[in-house]
Design brief:
Strand content: over 45%
Oligomer: single chain
Order of helices and strands: EEEEEEEEEEEEHEEEEEEEEEEEEEEEE
Strand order of the largest sheet: 1-2-3-4-5-6-8-9
Distance between the termini: 39 Å
Largest sheet: 8 strands, antiparallel
Structural class: mainly beta
Radius of gyration: 21 Å
Number of strands: 28
């Protein structure tokens, strides 16, 4: 794999990458290993630091603590939070569990979808959850059964780490200037799904458009001010023969994939705020990455070994100065489940 010369260095903030959290301030990455246990490694070398005794998925780094969730909770609809010490992975706080509606399944299950996102203001953690259910049986049932099995729920909770108290808060409505409300984007991946919605970050809104000519595709990026709706830029950012787009978890970066050969996927990274190119890479895999982020002097990827549903997944780090692979570690991959009907 080769990577272009190092781009402008990004902020030293923890980022979510698939089910991993990469934390440059503490020099570590946290991820569920194939056996489900949470592991920490040193991001400079890939050296193991510690591992948990139970199956956990990392959520958020707050000061000297790592907030995680039990991957296989009991009961199945419970959010069981755990706060671990960054240095040794030992439990740091006793946190209450949160029970959601009975139809919700936290762990992957047929006919169920669950996502939990977390952010922090340095004092408390804000947890946003979304859940869906649908009929996942065999033959088509009655319309009444389909309707009964189709459910959706969401909520927001604020966790005070000092007092270990949780309170329900209202989910704020997403607002955009009226001039941007009808704008749609060319399809892009969020890691969880494919979307055509306007890409929204704290300070900007963005959309993609794809133009096809004989033998070539051109991808354009248009960016507006999130608050005023005033246009910032519109520019062509990539050309290729089979372009696919993905955005980072924080909606700050765009990754464009072009299938270059049977076993190589070419990746270009851009800032969604200003269209600046952050780097490019050729990844030895026939499958596009599940998630990607440019952080500090490194490119981080979560990627499957192939497009097969039983392929292995790894978390990788590449040095943006030299293009060398720093490390690659196997990570837990959710089981394949039938798609929603």
């Amino acid at each position: 794999m080769s990577v272009s010369a190092r781009p402008e260095v990004t902020a030293r903030r923890p980022v979510r990458l698939d089910r991993a959290v990469v934390d440059e301030r503490h020099g570590a990455a946290y991820f569920p290993a194939p056996d489900g246990r949470l592991r920490a490694i040193r991001i400079a070398t890939g050296e193991p630091l510690w591992q948990s005794e139970r199956s956990l998925t990392p959520l958020l780094v707050i000061d000297e603590q790592l907030l995680a969730i039990a991957s296989d909770p009991e009961p199945a609809n419970a959010i069981i939070l755990v706060a671990l010490g960054i240095a040794d992975g030992m439990p740091a706080l006793a946190l209450p569990s949160i029970e959601l509606p009975l139809w919700v399944a936290i762990a992957p299950a047929p006919g169920r979808y669950f996502e939990l996102r977390a952010c922090s203001d340095g004092r408390a953690a804000v947890l946003d959850w979304q859940a869906r259910s649908w009929y996942a049986g065999g033959a088509r049932p009655s319309d009444k059964t389909l309707e009964r099995e189709s459910r959706h729920g969401e909520g927001r909770m604020e966790l005070d780490l000092e007092g270990s108290a949780i309170r329900q808060v209202e989910v704020p409505k997403v607002t955009v200037p009226e001039s941007l409300r009808s704008i749609r984007s060319a399809p892009y991946s969020t890691g969880e799904s494919i979307s055509e919605q306007l890409i929204l970050a704290d300070s900007h809104a963005a959309a993609l458009s794809l133009r096809t000519t004989p033998g070539e595709q051109q991808l354009y990026l248009e960016v507006w001010d999130r608050n005023s709706g005033e246009p910032r830029l519109k520019t062509q950012i990539a050309t290729g023969t089979s372009l696919r787009s993905m955005v980072s978890d924080d909606r700050q970066q765009l990754f464009v994939h072009d299938r270059w050969a049977d076993d190589v996927t070419v990746i270009q990274a851009f800032s969604l705020a200003n269209g600046r190119k952050l780097g490019s890479a050729r990844v030895a895999s026939s499958a596009p990455p599940i998630a990607a982020a440019v952080l500090g002097s490194s490119l981080y990827l979560a990627v499957d070994s192939s497009r097969r549903f039983d392929s292995e997944r790894s978390l990788r780090a590449y040095d943006l100065d030299t293009g060398e692979l720093r490390w690659s570690v196997p990570v837990w991959k959710p089981p394949w489940l039938p798609p929603a009907r």
